[in-house]
Every structure is written in structure tokens, then in C-alpha cells.
Amino acid sequence: MVTLGGGATVQVSEQIASLGSNLLMITPGQRIGMGQRSAAVAFDVDDAEAIARDIGSISAVAPSSSQGVTVVFGNKNWSTKVTGIDGQYFKVRNWTIESGREFVSSELRAGKAVCILGATVRKELFGGQDPLGSNIRMEKVSCQVIGILEAKGQSTMGTDRDDLILIPLRTFQRRIAGNQDIGLIQVSVQDGVSTDKVKQDIEQLMRVRRHISPSEDDSFSVRDMKEIAKMLTGTTQVLTALLGAVAAVSLLVGGIGIMNIMLVSVTERTREIGVRLAIGALTREVLMQFLVEAIVLSSFGGLFGIVLALTASVGLARVLQVPFVFNSGIVVIAFFFSAAVGVIFGYFPARQAARMDPIEALRHE
Amino acid sequence: MNTIVVSKQISHSPLIELHGVTKVYGTGGAAMHALRGIDLRIDQGEFVAVMGPSGSGKSTCMNILGCLDTPASGAYLFKGVDVGKLSRDQRALLRRNYLGFVFQGYNLLNRTSALENVELPLIYRGTPAVERRERALKALEAVGPKGWKSHTPGELSGGQQQRVAIARAIVTDPKVLLADELTGNLDSAHSREIMELLTSFNSERSITIVMVTHEPDMAAYAGRIIRFLDGVIDSESG
């Protein structure tokens, strides 16, 4: 169970790395609570340019804006999200093109009606057909497919990251949104540079640009992927702990089972214990005998359990699409835990055996 | 460490001495006086038969002699050591080093072979494995024909099991062999064989034997017969 939880944690970390762990996301408005955000003026292209110009130590800036649309091709339609992009969006989000090409700068500047499809959109609209060069229609805009993104699969939050269409930002602003707004500016910080420093610089710059007096709160937020990463790994760590708690309960149940078996064994072998005591076994020798039996029992159980658990984990990890992470430390801990269960739950029956009165024990039928 | 204490005190006093030993089970009105003052002396090399009707206190006396139980009052001196003052584990060491038991109903360990049964007391003595095997084999040979060593008790007849039980009792070369009704479940022919075996151990190895029996024929093998009645020694003969 802990192995599965550990796998989930690793998966989250990997996804965040695939997003770029040195990514800063700048959004208008301040997060008030979960999913709530204060209303605020959107950014515009100048903001993105100002960041690219005035902030040092950044490797890429990508302003973007998104909206839900229904896209139509032939007799098929599909509801998805269209994102207008500019600058180094591909670099910032670690997207790669599977086939076709990226936008060229002339297309970005001119706001051409060209688009790049995510793998899901491509599958839903085109099935097995080659979409390159075809024209799809979203809202009232017809645009030509020039590329396909490489699939990224599901995100940790369960959303399909391939369900999107990319178009040039200018095209998006003019033809779809009908305004000059930018909903999100993403910034890649150069490797080896503290994201905290860059984050502060951006906050300062934006406060100046937005004329926010020192007494006022920010009307935007700059989020570090590390924060998001921390939050998400925190979630999976809670999950791991929870699974561990479930395992602990089953350990307790198993321990009581062992205690039962040992108590039955002690009762059944009362005469044997009597004989052993009569021929001169010491209290602690009888105690050790039954304790060792309990430990052997639980250790075999532990070994069997570990084999079973690893097999099940491999299978489950495949079904749940979580990477299987073999943690030898956990396996060793699990084994010693099962042995410890033998000691703890075997002690009471063993003491019962050791404290028997030999005369009574020999008379036992 | 306890054995050292015991052996230091060993003198030339009699092997077994009971002085005014009593034993009471229960309390108050329900109290049952199993022994009401027993004085007894058994010397090294004696062969004593203990007789008496059931409830006469002979089994209780045997338990006390076997250091399995302690007197309520009076003193039990084993080689001059007051057993009543020893702890549970000290008495266990005394049993381990000086006493051999043959129980009523054999009491062999069912899942282990005859040889392993005989080895058992030596295991608790800490005898090395090779010597243990050797001595166990020798003890088995002393009680009967070869060839049972790998049999489990379930595969042996009553008489054979009794012989294995005797082998287990003598494998440690005890000072005293305590036997409880050891021919109770056997026919007379087998009983005689067993008694002759005991007599030979008594005379050849000078093992002191104290044996509870109901049968006068068997008691006749002993050098001395002690009769119990209502918690006291009724008579001694021989």
C-alpha cells in the first residue's frame, strides 16, 4: 500500500517536472480561497513584453488566453478549450510537436487562422485520418490544422491535458475573444536561478505597472510551480499515510489472529508443556519456545504477504496507471514489522504457557 | 548458577527426607488436607513402592518428592537442601539435574520420534548434539530392542511407549527415578518386563526408585513398601 502511495507521489513529481519545475504562473486577480479569485483587470500584451524586457534571469515568457469552444470538422463536433499563445509557449509548457510544425513568427504576428491540435481533439474529430492541412471550424472561425501535439495523458487532477487546441494569441484575441486580454502569463526561470527572486521581481514590476499603492493588495498573483508541487505531493503523502493506516489496522487484525492461533496451540499442547516443565525446562525456556514459534509463524506470513503485495502492486499500478516504485526499505520494514507482530502478539500466549503449573498441565486431557 | 548453590550444600545427608510435611488444597471449610504430616527418609539406591487407595495422598507426596509442588508446612530436604525454599526455576534445575520422571500415561511428545523424545531432557541440560544423540541411543538400547528410534509414539504399542518414557527418564543418569503407575495400562507379562528393567537400573546403576502402584505384584519388586492412608503413612514394610 505504501508502495502504491509512493508511486503516486513520484507520478505527481514527474508531472510537475514535465510542466517545468522552474515555471512561474502569473494570473490576474488574487486567489481568495479554493477556486475563488477576486475580479481583476486582465493583462495585456504590454505586460508580457514588460516582463520579458525588464526581468532578468528568465529564459522564456509565454502569454496566453483560453476559452471554451465547440469545434466542428465535417459532421463531427467536440467541445474543447482553445488557447491563444504567443512567444515561447511550447518551451515553457514542455510541449513537443508529434507531426506538422509549430507556428512561425509571421503567423503569430499576423494572427493567421492556423491551429495545432491536442491528441484528444485530433482523435475525436479525425479518428484515423490525417488532419494536417484540413480546415476545422470553431465559433465562426475556420482555421487550418498545421500540427499535432505529442500526447501527455491525464494530469494528477484527472483532467485530460491533450484536450486542447492552440492558435496564435492574436488570432484568439481578434477572432474568438474579441478583446486584447491576456489571462495568463507563464515565465520560465533560467536553470540555477532562484524562482523566489524572480517571483519578487515580477511582483514589484506588476505593482508599478498597475499603480498599486503600498497599502493595497496585489491585483494579480504569481504562483511558483514549487508551491503547486508541494501542495500536490502533500496530497499524495496524506494518501500514503492513509494507506499506511489501513495497513496498520490489518496488521492489528493479523496480530490478533496470530495470538489466537498461539493460544489454541498452547491449549492443545498443555500436556507437552507439562512434560517439558517437569523434566526441568525453565520458565523462560518455555516462553522462548512459544515466542520463537509465533515469530516464525508471523515471519512466514510476512514473506508470503510481501510476495503477494508486490504482485498485487505491480498489477494495480498498471490498472491505476501509477508508476510502480519498488522501495526495498518498505519491504524490509514490512518484514521486520511482521516479525515484531509475532513478538508482540505471541508474548501473551507464550507467557501463558510458561507460567503453567506442571502438575495441572500434566493432568490436562 | 542455581546448580552451584544446590551442589555446594550437598553433604552426606540422606538423599530424601520429609519432616512433618503437610499439603492443603483449598481454603476454609472446603479445605482438603491431602497430606497430614509425613515423615519419610529414602536413601541413595533404595527401591521404594508407594501404595494406597486413591485420595490417600500418595500422588501429592510424589509431586512434592518430584519438586513439582511444595509442602504447605514441614520440610522436604533433597540432599540436605530445603526444596520448599527454592524458586520455581531453581526447582526446575533440580528436576533437570537429579530427577527422572515416568508419568502415568507415558506423556511422550506425539509429533516427535522416540529418539527425539529421549533427547529432550538433554536439550534442556545443554548437552551438545552429538553427545545427546549418543546418550539417547544408549538409553533406548538399554530399555529395549533397537529399531524404534525413528517411530513416533503413535506408531508404538503401550509397552514400547512406556519403555521410551523410561529411557527418557534415565537418559540423564538421574539420582532418583519417580514413576507413577507405570504398569497401570500394561498386561502382566509386559508389566513384569518393565519391573525387571527398573530393578536392573536400581541394582546396576544404583538409581533410587520411588514408584506408585496399585498392584501388590509390582510392589513386590521393591525393597520397601510405603502405604498411604488419609494423608498419613499407614505402614512401612520391607
Describe this structure in words.
The complex is a heterodimer of chains A (365) and B (238). Chain A has 365 residues and is an alpha+beta fold. Chain A has 12 helices and 12 strands. Chain A folds into 2 domains: 41-218, no CATH class; 237-363, no CATH class. In chain A, the strands form 2 sheets. Chain A has a 6-stranded mixed beta barrel. Chain A is elongated, with a radius of gyration of 32 Å. In chain A, 34% of the residues are buried. Chain B is of the alpha/beta class. Chain B has 8 helices and 10 strands. Chain B has helices at residues 2-9, 58-65, 88-98, 114-125, 129-143, 158-170, 188-204, 216-219; strands at residues 16-25, 32-42, 47-51, 73-78, 81-82, 99-102, 176-180, 208-212, 224-229, 232-237. In chain B, helix 4 (114-125) packs across helix 5, helix 4 (114-125) packs parallel to helix 6 (158-170) and helix 5 (129-143) packs across helix 6 (158-170). Chain B starts with a helix and ends with a strand. The chains are: A alpha+beta (365), B alpha/beta (238). Chain A binds chain B through residues 271-272, 274-285, 358-359, 362, and chain B through 63, 66, 68-69, 88-89, 92-97, 99, 101, 103, 107-109, 120-121, 124-125, 168.
